[in-house]
Amino acid sequence: MARLVLLGSVIAHVWAAISLVRQNQAARPVRYQVKQTLATTYAAKVMPLGGLILVLFIIYHLLHFTTGHVAPGEFRGWQDAYHNFVTGFQVPAIAGVYVVANIFLGLHLCHGIWSMLQTLGINRPRYNHWRKRAATGLAVVVAGSDISFPIAVLAGVIQEAVVELRSSAPGGPIETAWDRHRFEMKLVNPANRRKFRSWWCWARASRAARRRRLGEMGTLWRPSASRTAPAAPTASRPRAASTPPRTTRATARRHLPPVL
Q: Which of the residues 5, 26, 120, 226 has an alpha carbon 20 to 30 A from that of 216?
């Protein structure tokens, strides 16, 4: 839709320019014998030539980036406009065409903005220098930004992105991928169980939980001798049976290993 609006605007602009030239010629059918330039600019002098160059450039631009008929290399359409942009401007001849066309575009805008402000009534000696600065500044900004694109590609500042796909999913058949990945993990593989030291809170963790978590690490849990039989007191001085240390909930959470 946006391209159609722009194309319609260009057609209306060309029609208005042709109508203005015809009115000018009808006002004076006889040409001047001696023509002296009193007050004009270079941008005003090249308006007819610049307009023709811009019309041809617009047609070339549509064939380059929209339809791809004159695009160098592989044209990927709107799915990968960045690729078309980089590969197109990597050709110096194409980049030169865009640079020259945008220079004429800047001159065209400079005189066009100057004339537009004059038509709107901003035509006094008090404001003419501001009008000239505004027209020149807008033309430089538009043309300079457009010229920077092909120059940046030729200079290597803008390059085609290289996308490297890295998948963390395990390979092999999808039916057995998760089981194989689960049994090959370091925390689950019984061959690596000696590399880890587990500290258990025997007061808070139940016996079933201890067996389940030790079994996941490949360790067969057996109650130790100190847990099954309390230590016998000595004959000289009787001692009470040792009780397990009291552990808070925060200590139990800190010492329990992660549940897989």
A: 226
